[in-house]
């Protein structure tokens, strides 16, 4: 395959691109539970107009583009306030949750080296922690201890304590964790990290733009943010339930001193001072500006309403799963994630993956995850309008696959293509 010599007219090019999308997930219909989070028509419009303004801008150098410096500072400050960051808390925008986590892991390693003389700092995580921690451990060459979760899917603090030692630089909790959507016992994890002077990072990539609003809605939200003593850093993805388009997340630290451990500067080449807030070089201004615009457009009231739609929809799904013989929801069922699994206590357990195949034939997209084999649903505002249809299809699909077992047992969070 080679790029053809002659260029083509704009309309032809765009028509081709549009045609390529024929088999992509149909998130616009609300039938995809994850990956794209739809805040509705006015959120699209404000994001698209901001994106057009900032399509070409580069946040590499905020002296050249001071507006992007201001956009970053404002989005970070608004997020810090939502997460009860103390005066002096500080952060940066990154390209996504994985990069925010990488920054937190790097900061923990560097702080361990600078303050405790621990060169080969170690990480302690629950098995439910996001794969991005393992990727970070791989990239930064750090040993990582992975500890099985409790029966309720939360981090097992006592078991994690056995893995903490004088080389531990980072203890991780999630709010909530992705697979079952439960919030880890953050105060106990922060206290555990403090016993050896390690950082405690709270991964709120999934919950950062839900939990504050769930609390405002009067829902029961366990302590997880900077109000918990001993939480050093938090990651929160604006491109998930913050409803911004892809490519933007916030990494926050309790203080500027702690933030310093994630930054890197260099002056010993021929190109001049290189200051690096995160892992990128050239940084698109587009996602940063779109996030700023979406947050301004929604305001806290807008987010509360979107969170209500997502949480109410998740409740409806849980009720429907609970009423289906042979199925169960994993976890305590409070937030916007719904993991659907076979119920071993039933006389007639249903196979989650066979159910997923039947739902897929009706146009529903759930990630297949495990262990244990289960269907993942990240429920957001975009799903609310079709939840009645999903509930009806669940009943039909359950009847259709009773007694069947899917041959394909593979899971799909992401791909290497
Ligand atoms: C999505 C997610 C991440 C990773 O974020 P990306 O934006 O996909 O890189 C990390 N942790 C949790 C809990 C997540 O849900």
Superfamily (CATH H level) name of the largest domain: Type I PLP-dependent aspartate aminotransferase-like (Major domain)
* Secondary-structure element string: HHHEHEHEHEHEHEEHEEHEEHEEH
CATH topology of the largest domain: Aspartate Aminotransferase, domain 2
CATH class value of the largest domain: Alpha Beta
The chain-level structural class is alpha/beta
Count of individual helical segments = 12
Radius of gyration: 22 Å
Q: In this structure, how is the largest beta sheet organized?
A: 7 strands, mixed
Query: How many structural domains in the coordinates?
Result: 2
Count the beta strands.
13
Bound ligands, named by name, code or SMILES:
pyridoxal-5'-phosphate
- How large is the share of residues in beta strands? 5-15%
Mean of pLDDT: 97
Low-confidence stretches: none
Architecture (CATH level 2) name of the largest domain: 3-Layer(aba) Sandwich
Distance between the termini: 17 Å
Strand order of the largest sheet: 1-7-6-5-4-2-3
What does this structure look like?
With 417 residues, the chain is an alpha/beta fold. The protein has 2 domains: 251 residues, Aspartate Aminotransferase, domain 2, CATH 3.40.640; 103 residues, Aspartate Aminotransferase, domain 1, CATH 3.90.1150.10. 38% of the residues lie in helices and 14% in strands. It contains 12 helices and 13 strands. Strands 1-7-6-5-4-2-3 form a 7-stranded mixed sheet, sandwiched between helices. It has a 4-stranded antiparallel sheet with strand order 10-11-13-12. Strand 4, helix 7 and strand 5 form a beta-alpha-beta unit. Helix 3 packs parallel to helix 10 and helix 10 crosses helix 12. The radius of gyration is 22 Å and the shape is globular. Bound molecules: pyridoxal-5'-phosphate (PLP). Pyridoxal-5'-phosphate binds next to helix 4.
